[in-house]
Design brief:
The chain has helices at residues 3-7, 45-60, 74-87, 103-107, 121-130, 155-168; strands spanning 23-27, 67-70, 91-93, 113-117, 141-145, 148-153. With 169 residues, the chain is an alpha/beta fold.
Amino acid sequence: MSVGKLLRVSAAGPAGRTIAEVIFFLRHGVAERGGVDDAARRLTAEGERQAEAAGQALVALGEEVESCLTSPKVRAADTARLACEILGIEPETAAKLCGPFDSLELTAGRGNVLLVGHEPYLSEEIGRLTGADAKLRKGGLAIVDGSTLIALLRPDDLASIAAASMASS
């Protein structure tokens, strides 16, 4: 049984808003260095592998991701596209993920949501929700249910989960 399925809870947020059951925070994969336009930086081959491993790991864990919101910056949008191809969902762009954001507001009414974005904003939001001092590595994933940090997975962890799943199929 998956982490999300074990701990799934429906909850109402402020003013009775339905909030996401589980929020998955995925930091974009490793991207090209430098360049004049930060928003146009593309994923490296390693970053592409990290994005695919994140999607494969979520499938292997049995997680049901119902929607994905991504920063419009190329490295995040490409990470979301690669992970979501495996998850069988289409990512949607959310400009708010380029800076500080309120995940409860962004995910309201969307079920289990994958948010793909940037540091320090992802870790700050995880901390706001859970009180945890979590830092996401490039290509890393955090799973939050309500106010509980369920998992903080490094890119190597995701690759191992994905590889173990592929080996057992």
